[in-house]
Amino acid sequence: MKLIKSRLWRRLLATVGVLLVVAGGLGVGNSSDLWAAEDGQPQLLAHRGIAQTFPLDGVEADTCTATRIHPPEHLLVENTIDSMRAAFDAGADMLEFDVQLTADNQLAVFHDSTLECRTDGTGRVRDHTLAELRKLDLGYGYTADGGATHPLRGKGVGLLPAAEEVIAAFPDRELLVDLKNDDRADGERLADLLATLPAQRRATIGVYGGDVAVRAVAERLPQLRVASRQTMKDCLLRYLAVGWSGHVPDACRNTELHLPQRYGRLLWGWPDLFVERMRGAGTRVILVAGDGPWSAGFDGEEALDQVPEHWSGWLWSNRVDAIAPHLRP
């Protein structure tokens, strides 16, 4: 009996030893401390150009954010060529902008599905022609004091661009297009536009949005880098299963990953090794501040304290002008 117990005990110790060795190997093989590049440099994504910011507490899907902005530090209106150009001048490496279909089948660059919050217009964007939308004042509704003053009123008249105008205005820059409506028609119309561009130019453009609209783009242009809730879910679940080995699943190749900072730590090799693996697979990793539901950005020096050391992926920001000086003195 003593001999049997001794053998069982030795087997148990051997098993534990093997498990510890395997666990140690996985830890070493996925340790960013060992694999990180000390000269990591973040790349900056300008969300809607340089935009007015607002507190996110209490924001719901139907909240009019233009009526709760912080006191303006600039007079730029989001999603305009002026705000986009200012973002690139301030150090942005990529620009994100919103598009949606108009009544005359054009792709207007505008965030909200309706006009009342931000502009002096009424109704849905999709019920107006592009020419009608261009007559609106895009800064009409912005206020930081409950409506006592409107500092951007009159600053956005005639500034609404079409998607092709943004692409033409920044011919050699990285762009990320947000399909605001999850409709197949929107995705097909954007795919039609992008299909007219040379392959080299399309390689600098990404698309994200709802599953239906993004799927329409991906079916037409399978080499385009796209992202939706479904594509990111497919990638991350597969990576969680096999990423310990260093393998990058096909679902994670040539795509976009928009990751809230608090969830990244769950991923094998986070942060630096994970970013390097995805970069090697042609995928951009974009870090979003906070929990992620409302596109919170890294918009000030204090927010940068939450960025992993040596981070060399992308940072999502509404105020590239405010953070670039701290990252690139």
TrEMBL record:
GO biological process: lipid metabolic process
InterPro entries for the chain: GP_PDE_dom, PLC-like_Pdiesterase_TIM-brl
Domain GP-PDE span(s) in chain numbering: 42-319
SUPFAM superfamilies recorded: PLC-like phosphodiesterases
Single GO MF descriptor: phosphoric diester hydrolase activity
Entry protein name: Glycerophosphoryl diester phosphodiesterase
Organism: Paractinoplanes rishiriensis
Upper taxonomic lineage: Bacteria, Bacillati, Actinomycetota, Actinomycetes, Micromonosporales
